[in-house]
Amino acid sequence: MRQRQQLERSIGIYQELERSLEDGVTLIELGEAEDDDASVAEGEAMLKKLAEEAERRSIEALLSGEADGNDTYIEVHAGAGGTESQDWASMLARMYMRWAEQRGYKVSTLEESPGEEAGIKSVTMEIKGEGAYGWLKTESGVHRLVRISPYDSNARRHTSFASVWVYPVIDDDIDIQVNESDCRIDTYRSSGAGGQHVNTTDSAVRITHIPTGIAVASQQERSQIKNRAIAWSMLKARLYEMELKKREEKANAEAASKTEIGWGHQIRSYVLQPYQLVKDLRTGTQSTDPDAVLDGEIDPFIESALAQRIKGGGPVEVADLD
To answer: Which strand (E) or helix (H) includes residue 214?
Structure first.
C-alpha cells in the first residue's frame, strides 16, 4: 500500500507539472498572437517558476533507495570543548526539529544527556514522516561552529564541533537477527524531566553490540521493558543502516563520501562571527543567513548533497573555513 501511495503521488506530481507547462506555453502563444506583452510576461514567469519546481521535484524523485521512504533516527553528539560544544549540539538538535516541524513531520526525543552548564552532551530523536530518512541521510557527519562564545568572559572566538548520525527506522517485516550473547545491556536512571519516578528507578536502557561497538539508549518511557524494546529496535536499525552503507559503497565506489564520521570528516561550517556564512564543504552550497539555517531552512544544503550523491559526483574542493 505504501509503494502504491508513493507511485500515485509521483504520477500526480508529474501530471501537475505537465498541466502547468501546457498552461504556460498556451498563455505565451496567445499573448504573442494578440500582441499582449503582459500575457507573455505572465507565461514566462509561470515557466520560470515551473522550472524551479521541476528541479526540486527531480531531487525528490531520485529518493529511491531501499530505506529512503522510512522514518529516521537522528543522533547529535557534542564534541570536545565542554559547554561551548554542548550548546552547539543543542542548537543543531533544534535546527533539525524546526526543519521537521516545517515539513509536518512528528519528532520525539528517545534519549537525551544534558550538559553540565548548558546545552546537551547527546540526544537521539525519532522523526516520523514520508521520506524522512531519504531527506536527512546526507546530514551524517561533523558540523563546525565558529562564533564569539557567550560563555567566554573575554569574548574570544571559539570553534566547536558536533557530530550527527542519521539511520532509518526499519519496518516490522524486515527481519534483523541479533544474538543477545553479542550484546551488553545496561540499565540506569533517566537524566531528563519526569518527576520523582525518574530519580528513583533504573528505567533507562543502553544496549551495546560488542562485535561492532554500536551503542544505543532509550529513556523515553517510564517502563524499563518499553525502553528495552525501543533500544532493541534502534540497534537493529543501526545494524541495518550499516549494511545499507556497505552495499552503497560497493555499488557506487563512493567511499570518500560515506566513511564513518570522525572529527576529520567535516561536512559543513557555520560561521557567526566575524562574518556570517554557512558553507557545505562537500558541495560548496552556502548561505549568508545562518539564523535562517539554524531555524531549519536547510533544504538547499540537503538537495545539493543529495544531487551530488545520487548523480555520482565527487566532493567539491573548497577552501577550509576558519
So the answer is: strand 214-218
* Residues shown for the chain: 322
What's phi and psi for 180, nearest 5 deg?
A: -60, -25
Q: What is the pTM of this model?
A: 0.66
Nearest by Cα to 160 from 91, 229, 66: 91
Give the Cα separation of 91 and 106 in Å (integer).
19
Angle between helices 2-33 and 37-61 (to 10 degrees): 160
Q: How far is residue 72's CA from residue 168's CA, in Å, rounded to a whole number? A: 4
User: What SS3 string covers 113-158?
Assistant: EECCCCCEEEEEEEEECCCHHHHHHHHCEEEEEEEECCCCCCCCEE
Cα–Cα dist 278/276, whole Å: 7
State pLDDT tens for residues 138-196.
Answer: 999 999 999 998 887 787 888 999 999 998 887 665 667 788 889 999 988 876 554 44
Residue 84 has pLDDT above 70, yes or no: yes
Quick check: 283 and 269 in contact, CB under 8 A?
no
How far apart, in whole angstroms, are the C-alpha atoms of residue 294 and residue 99? 9
